[in-house]
Predict the 3D structure of the following.
Amino acid sequence: MIYLNSLQAQDKMEYPEFFVEKIDLVPDLLMTDKTLELPDGGGYFCGPVSVANSLIYLKNNGFEKLLPDYQGDTMKIYSDLICQLGEDRYMKTITNKITPQGYMIRGLKRYVKDSDYNFENIEYKKIGKNPNNDIDLLKNRISNGYETMIFLWITKEIEPNVMKIIAGHWVSLVGYGKDEKGKVNSDILIIHDPGSGLNYTANDFVQLKLCDSDFKADKRNFKNHYELMNFDCTNGADNIFLSGILSFKLKK
């Protein structure tokens, strides 16, 4: 496991202008979908659902042992996967009613090992010190065969000029560089949001905007973080900031 505090010298952050090959292939499961029958209605399952999106995609693309063979009710298979990821042995989501970064990583590593696969690489990168490098890393990973999830902080103005973090939220990154009309735009990320999915694929095209001045919420300052614009997230958010990147690639 690698925690990246800064980009390593040997990393060449090369990537194509846009990457959209996977946007309609990676599932976009909705954590509150009643057919999944997740505990407590699924409202805090964004972490396991984001990982499940990637595991289902990998299952369909050469890593068959990650899930049982599809027979009968596939939504039941998906539900079992998400609930298993949420168990104490994995991400501890059911107990904690949240999935912090450390448990997200632990659960993913254990599930992959239990499925008899190994990682070619797995890494988590905190955002903020070098924002342009952070976006370079994100685009490099998704376009080079990595499964990539991003962690967001959601803030709300509770009093005039008083901001508060009201939630953390995981989403799946599936592409970048083109808007919903197919026009090239380097500031566009394409995500699948467990909080607003439509069961299989519903692409959210969000615009990045760098916060280049002090923006404090609780004890955090989001200066040099990217804000996600035109993103209709849950929880009545006023601002949504990119906070971390979790990327992994499995060995064949």
